[in-house]
Amino acid sequence: MSEEIVFYHNPRSRASMVHLMLEECGANYRIVHVDLEKREQKSPEFLKLNPMGKLPTIVDRGVVVTETPAIIAYLADIHPEAGLAPPVGDPARGTWYRWLFFGGSCFEPAILDVATGRPAPDPGMAGYGSYEQVLEALKAALTPGPWLLGEQFSAADVYVGSEINWAMMFGAPGLKGEKVFDDYVARLTSRPTYQRLTAQAGA
Ligand SMILES: N[C@@H](CCC(=O)N[C@@H](CS)C(=O)NCC(=O)O)C(=O)O
Asked: How many domains does the chain have?
């Protein structure tokens, strides 16, 4: 069995997306719970690992990986048997990178505009354009679906699908009630991994 990955986690954080990915990969991991209310993420020990003092953070064979999409891509690569990343050299890998990066660099800032009510910048200046443009791009990417790579479920869906699911939960406009997003999230959340983690969280 591969060496144990140390996963710094709090279920009320972006780390949940990494938790889902660890399960999808069948990874060998150990959870270290980080209490965000007690600000354990800002302790000197934790800041040595991640100077941002943020979750998720993983340590694999002595190497620290942070930033949710980077961790998810890394896990897909070290677990090729899970089939969650097209191989290097396959053109589908381009599509996979595209949506993983889109999640971090476009969906994230756009959804933060909406969640915080902060004024959206000029769409021509903002790398993500506008919230509406981001949703249109995702709609097109998920049509006909069922996944971002078409028939193949991948790590890009773990990340982007989880982000959309989270945004729906807090009622971000233009998501719930849109068939393409409703169906996509329903597919993701009906997977055994998601169901298992939800049952564990409930227990
Ligand atoms: N760019 C990071 C963002 C991580 C992040 O902001 N995590 C939040 C929880 S969702 C956090 O740890 N906040 C605690 C803090 O900043 O004190 C990623 O994509 O993983």
From this structure: 2
